[in-house]
Design a protein that fits this description.
Elements lengths: L2 H17 L8 H8 L6 E21 L2 E23 L4 E12 L7 E7 L2 E21 L2 E20 L4 E22 L2 E18 L5 E19 L21 E14 L17 E17 L2 E12 L21 E18 L4 E4 L8 E4 L2 E9 L1 H4 L16 H4 L14 E9 L3 E8 L18 E13 L2 E16 L2 H6 L12 E15 L4 E10 L13 E11 L4 E14 L2 H8 L17 E11 L4 E11 L10 E11 L1
Antiparallel strand pairs: 1-2, 1-9, 2-3, 3-5, 4-5, 5-6, 6-7, 7-8, 8-9, 10-11, 10-27, 11-12, 12-13, 13-16, 14-15, 16-17, 17-18, 18-19, 19-20, 20-21, 21-22, 22-23, 23-24, 24-25, 25-26, 26-27
Length: about 650
């Protein structure tokens, strides 16, 4: 079974768990849906994800040649929708709806065609499909069946690469039509889940390039998708919401959380004696990133839970996320998206076995269903998630959407943890929790090659093994935690020294790749000084002999910082953060870069080595309980370990909302 098939199957299981009446028969919230007629009339917004199978008829005409072809492309897609319904007394429903859908982040899933004719090589990429539709259906209680149809719009990019390597990029938007059917079920007073099929036909159209080449295509999109919709009430409108329950997004069986974060970063011009392929450009620059997430979590059985986290990601890191070992924006992963792209970021099963005795309250969040659990427990987890979702927790420096942004401050910089370009992987973990300590272990798939979206599926022969011991203590009546992590990577990787020792390789480290071991450790401490002030620190190290596989070009890193809540000045939900990091490279790694080698994030073409020094401070201003505006400043000395460049000042603004 393919990864896409597995992801779609578990996503379907999640929504079924949300909507299954049997699973929630004991809940007052669910009972209110069954005993009252759901009011379908009104405005609504929602999100959807599904599988799209597409076909294109394409033609490339170059002054020297012409070629025609058919092309198929498919993959997971996701997006947002909004509309208005009007329900008649007879049960007949009339509605209008608009939506945007986006491909996932893998290039192969949004490449329509790649043709070569004469002196032209043209690639077509689809970036979005939007529709404006009418809906006609029949509603009976909490169920709605409907047909839908209307206009469709498609936006795409066309890239022509000449025989000389020159590129010309054009954008085009095209019109078409859409038709489909669906069924929708109310799962809570304001929430409904849907299953929908849509067929989109995009009319033939194309572009003409400067070299005379002409490209045309017509597209067919067939999509089966699941959706989640939130009905919006006008102020003062009657509501089915139980008065005793402040939110209809949660129950004892399932929870819905969401977040949206936009980050803008800018720096002024700085000194640079030279610039290489993976350098920060010394000219002024501004870039932004935008992430949108849903967290759909459900209890399946006693101790069994499923977690599904679809996301829409857009934006660019500074200089396409290169130029710093401790990069400045944790939301700027190593894939850059001019338009939003869908990703199934997390999709996993969790099973908890309680051993009885004392219990504790687990706070509700996007990664944790709220409720009581035995303090003494064993938790198993398997699926797609991030290594740092389970390991290297820290109360003060962990979440780049809320606190520090720099990679070497919110994470242990020298921990080359298994991940694709978005920081995620597939794996399994086990955690034994006790009152004063916890022991965690895990196995994860590694990248097939350095900085890749493909995983090496030689399970257990290749992969990452991680173990962590967390101890909890009190110092002067204030809580603290010490986490110690050890890790070993078995990966298909290259050697810095072997590459340098063979001039015939011309610094191509890929030619030295074979099965190799990389290892390292992390020490992570956090200590509360009061209810409003806390300290934290991390020391991380790896052996630095083989190329970085997944994270960033750091072989040793020390970070220290503090977090201060605004209670003293009457702003208890505001936070000030101040931290610093010092990052270093191994001898082999720095020699490789000095000779002109390139790492995943750095490579100036030469190197006057010094440790990379970073200071970061931020003020997070809580507009309300759900919305926070943050101003952030980072000062980087010796960017990418190079005393011939910098320093650079990076200014950031961040707006974060959540529910």
């Amino acid at each position: 079974m393919s990864n896409l098939t597995r992801e779609y199957a578990v996503a379907a299981l999640t929504l079924l768990a949300l909507s299954c009446p049997a699973a929630a028969a004991d809940l007052p919230l669910k009972a209110s849906v069954r005993t009252a007629i759901f009011d379908w009339t009104g405005l609504y917004v929602g999100a959807h994800a599904g599988y799209t199978r597409d076909h294109a008829d394409v033609m490339l005409s170059d002054p020297a040649a012409e070629i025609r072809a058919g092309s198929r492309f498919s993959g997971l897609t996701g997006g947002v929708h909004a509309g208005y319904n009007w329900l008649t007394r007879s049960g007949l429903l009339f509605g209008i709806e608009g939506d945007f859908s986006f491909p996932n982040y893998l290039t192969t899933n949004h490449t329509v065609a790649n043709l070569t004719a004469g002196t032209s090589n043209v690639m077509e990429l689809w970036d979005y499909v939007a529709t404006a539709r009418g809906r006609l259906g029949y509603a009976s209680g909490s169920w709605l069946a409907y047909a839908t149809g209307g206009l469709a719009f498609s936006g795409g990019r066309f890239i022509n690469t000449s025989a000389a390597g020159d590129q010309e990029k054009l954008l085009a938007t095209r019109l078409g039509w859409v038709a489909g059917v669906g069924v929708e079920h109310a799962i809570a007073p304001h929430w409904s889940a849907r299953l929908e099929y849509l067929y989109n036909r995009i009319d033939s159209g194309g572009v003409r390039f400067g070299n005379g080449a002409q490209y045309t295509s017509s597209l067919d999109f067939q999509t089966v998708r699941l959706g989640l919709t939130r009905k919006l009430d006008w102020p003062g409108a009657a509501s089915l919401q139980p008065k005793s329950d402040p939110t209809d997004t949660e129950s004892d069986r399932w929870e819905i959380h969401g977040q949206s974060t936009v980050i803008g970063q800018v720096y002024p011009a700085f000194r640079a004696l030279y610039t290489g392929p993976n350098s920060l450009t010394p000219a002024p620059q501004f870039q932004e990133t935008w992430s949108n997430s849903l967290f759909l979590n459900a209890r399946l059985w006693d101790g069994g839970e499923v977690y599904y986290n679809p996301e829409l990601l857009q934006g660019f890191g500074l200089d396409n996320t290169v130029g710093l070992g401790g990069f400045s924006n944790g939301e700027a992963q190593k894939s850059d998206f001019p338009y939003p792209h869908y990703n199934t970021s997390r999709l996993f099963l969790r099973q908890t076995f309680g051993f009885g005795g004392e219990q504790e309250e687990l706070a509700s969040s996007g990664s944790q269903l709220g409720g009581k659990a035995d303090v003494s427990r064993l938790t198993l987890q398997v699926g797609k998630f991030g290594v740092l979702d389970v390991f290297d927790g820290n109360s003060y420096a962990k979440d780049t959407r809320k606190d520090f942004m720099n990679w070497s401050i919110w994470a242990p910089g020298a921990f080359d943890y298994a991940a694709d370009k978005l920081g995620l992987t597939y794996g399994a973990t086990a955690e034994l929790n006790q009152k004063d300590w916890a022991l965690r272990g895990g196995y994860f798939l590694m990248d097939a090659v350095s900085n890749s979206n493909n995983f090496d599926t030689n399970v257990f022969r290749r992969g990452e093994y991680v173990v962590e011991l967390e101890t909890r203590y009190n110092l002067f009546s204030q809580p603290g935690k010490l986490r110690t992590i050890g890790w070993i990577n078995s990966a298909f990787s290259g050697s810095y020294r072997e590459t340098l020792d063979d001039p015939a390789l011309n610094l191509d480290i890929a030619q030295t790749r074979r099965g190799r071991i990389k290892y390292g450790y992390v020490v992570n401490v956090e200590q509360a000084l009061s209810s409003d002030v806390g300290l934290f620190g991390r020391w991380s190290w790896n052996d630095g002999r083989t190329e970085i596989m997944a994270f960033t070009d750091i072989d040793s890193s020390l970070s220290l910082g503090t977090s201060i809540k605004g209670t003293k000045w009457g702003r208890p939900d505001d936070v000030i953060g101040i931290a610093g990091a010092s990052n270093g490279l191994s001898r082999d790694h720095r020699d490789f870069l000095a000779a002109g080698g390139l790492g995943p994030l750095i490579g100036d073409g030469a190197l006057n080595y010094r440790r990379e020094q970073i200071i970061e401070t931020y003020y997070a201003y809580a507009i309300n309980k759900s919305l926070t505006l943050t101003a952030d400043y980072q000062f980087v000395t010796n960017p990418a370990y190079n005393a011939d460049r910098g320093p650079v000042s990076i200014f950031s603004g961040r707006l974060h909302g959540e529910f």
